Known about the structure:
By secondary structure, the protein is mainly α. It is 76% helix and 0% strand. The protein has 9 helices and no strands. Helix 6 runs parallel beside helix 8. The two termini are 26 Å apart.
Amino acid sequence: PVDQVRLRKTLQEAISFYTRGIELRDARGPLKPTDTALVGILEQLDRLIFELGDAKEAEDPAAARARIQVLLERFPDHAPFLHTLAIMCRDLDDFEAAEKAFRAAIAACPKENDWFRAQYLNNIGLLYEAANRYTDAEAEYRRASELSGPGRLDGFENLGKLAFKLGSPKKALGFFKAVL
Length: 180
């Protein structure tokens, strides 16, 4: 199991370090996302953010959201940061902001990175499903399944669960078998 407390602390420290690095670089001139001095910490942030995921687990969800928004001021098209903001907004019951951030993350994600794009599509599908927008949820799960391909849970699992939830167990079984 993931040590959420340790992970939160590490993430907070990494974001503080990264933000301070940006401030120092800004004092010397415009910052570029490709600055090699910040690449390592940016990768660490991506990993930590992916592991943490759920803003409801944060000690202060509003502060966590504010920290990610500071990073997005510097890197407005950074897909993992946008995705994290979307998850935080979802967890804070801000549906419209979550939907907007998910769409921005999907648009910003490189086309060759199908695995992440599929994850983002699944998450927006889960957002729609939670809002009882089942047709929209199914469409996003199908797009995720197309990106993931056969043998991956991703969208197929969510399609199966949704079909079962909507009273189609045979259809659900077909989606579950697609994973095999």
